[in-house]
């Protein structure tokens, strides 16, 4: 198949999933064309089956923002026509599904009816729970969903939220996020410890885009409780609006020597191999890819019982789930894991086993079947 993938290039779960999906499809012999403002952050090395098309936007003084949606549509239309794409897979209803829809309309005279590409849309979360919740964008999101030939959601939670908020006319299939378990596995950590200057003690990690929904204050509060009982270092991976406040908190509480702000890092495996625990106290999480990657690397996760987390984290088996904001309960679970080696070993092994149920190969096969159904149904 010839597949176009439209996604965000920036640091985050949706871009990671879209890119890893495209790379896996290319390895299986499909031709994949990526559309984005810049090369997706996980695209990595070259492949004979992968092509990247940078979307350049025009600036015009009359308008406050560039024409990204239209520029993306034009780029998709051009590539789809000349490369004869079978499917354009839009990751996010806005702007990617709408741009794909516009691209298909641009080609109506050149490839009328069933000769044009099919549109698959994957909903990742914020396109529904944040963008879609805004009244000014509700109808645009609904259009992107209803005009797609097929729609998937990354969790049952997100499917239910989409149906509740939009009453879509098209069925939504749940295809969860996935992890390459051959890549995300525990590796030797001596060199990583030396590079980070971590002499000993436990290592706690948090990975996110540092938005308010991630509750960075709770990450720090839980770590403060851990540090009062267990020698430990906190690795904060990512960046965003909450980082400045987090840095101020760390300085105010005298934890500067125990907290590392690492910023945006693409190669997470060495850090996850070093980690003994992941903290994910989000208010909401449509799936939680970082947690799944941690589990695949043998890292137990203490998270909140919201969104997609309960669909793959089993409380008391491979991690612990608590109510958002319950710092004391999360702290107790975290300390129990770090102080009880037998408990940690059991949860670590169970986490690896659970992650295998979400291996890339299994989920890519489902996407292949999904594409074929769209093509054959055209």
Care to give the gist of this entry?
The protein has helices at residues 13-27, 68-83, 93-106, 126-129, 135-146, 156-166, 190-196, 216-229, 243-252, 269-274, 289-296, 309-312, 327-339, 341-355, 360-376; strands spanning 2-6, 31-36, 50-54, 87-91, 118-123, 150-153, 172-174, 202-207, 232-237, 259-263, 277-280, 301-304, 319-322.
Main attributes of the structure:
single chain; 378 residues; alpha/beta; Rossmann fold; 2 domains; 6-stranded parallel β-sheet; 15 helices; 13 strands
Question: Care to describe what's here?
Answer:
It is a single chain. Helix 1 crosses helix 15 (360-376) and helix 8 crosses helix 13. The chain has 2 domains: 2-178 and 359-376, Rossmann fold, CATH 3.40.50; 190-358, 3-Layer(aba) Sandwich (Rossmann fold). It is of the alpha/beta class and 378 residues long. The chain contains 15 helices and 13 strands. The relative contact order is 0.12. The mean pLDDT is 90.
Tally the helices: 15
Strand order of the largest sheet: 3-2-1-4-5-6-7
Integer tally of domains? 2
What oligomeric assembly is this protein in?
single chain
Share in helix: 40-55%
Largest sheet: 7 strands, parallel
Low-confidence runs (pLDDT<50, min 5 residues)? none
């Amino acid at each position: 198949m010839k597949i176009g993938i439209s996604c965000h290039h920036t640091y985050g779960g949706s871009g990671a999933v879209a890119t890893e999906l495209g790379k896996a499809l290319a390895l299986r012999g499909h031709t994949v064309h990526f559309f984005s403002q810049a090369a997706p952050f996980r695209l990595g090395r070259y492949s004979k089956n992968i092509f990247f098309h940078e979307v350049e936007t025009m600036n015009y003084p009359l308008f406050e923002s560039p024409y990204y949606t239209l520029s993306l549509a034009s780029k998709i239309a051009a590539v789809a026509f000349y490369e004869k794409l079978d499917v354009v897979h839009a990751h996010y209803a806005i702007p990617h599904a709408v741009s794909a829809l516009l691209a298909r309309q641009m080609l109506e005279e050149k490839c009328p009816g069933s000769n044009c590409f099919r549109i698959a849309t994957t909903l990742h979360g914020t396109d529904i729970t944040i963008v879609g919740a805004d009244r000014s964008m509700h109808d645009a999101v609904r259009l992107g969903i209803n005009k797609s030939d097929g729609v998937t959601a990354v969790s049952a939670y997100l499917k239910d939220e989409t149906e509740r908020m939009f009453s879509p006319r098209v069925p939504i299939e749940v295809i969860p996020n996935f992890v390459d378990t051959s890549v995300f596995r525990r590796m030797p950590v001596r060199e990583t410890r030396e590079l980070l200057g971590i002499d000993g003690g436990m290592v706690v990690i948090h990975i996110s885009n540092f938005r308010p929904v991630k509750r960075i204050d709770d990450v720090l509060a839980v770590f403060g409780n851990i540090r009062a009982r267990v020698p430990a270092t906190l690795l904060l991976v990512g960046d965003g609006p909450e980082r400045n406040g987090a840095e101020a908190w760390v300085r105010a509480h005298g934890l500067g020597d125990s907290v590392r702000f690492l910023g945006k890092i693409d190669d997470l495996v060495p850090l996850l191999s070093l980690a003994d625990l992941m903290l994910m106290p989000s208010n909401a999480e449509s799936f939680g890819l970082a947690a799944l990657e941690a589990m695949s690397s043998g890292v137990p996760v203490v998270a909140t019982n919201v969104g997609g987390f309960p669909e793959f984290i089993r409380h008391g088996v491979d991690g612990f789930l608590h109510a958002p904001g319950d710092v004391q309960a999360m702290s107790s679970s975290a300390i129990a894991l770090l102080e009880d080696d037998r408990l940690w070993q059991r949860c670590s092994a169970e986490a690896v086993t659970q992650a295998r149920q979400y291996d890339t190969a299994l989920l890519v096969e489902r996407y292949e079947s999904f594409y074929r159904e769209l093509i054959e149904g055209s």
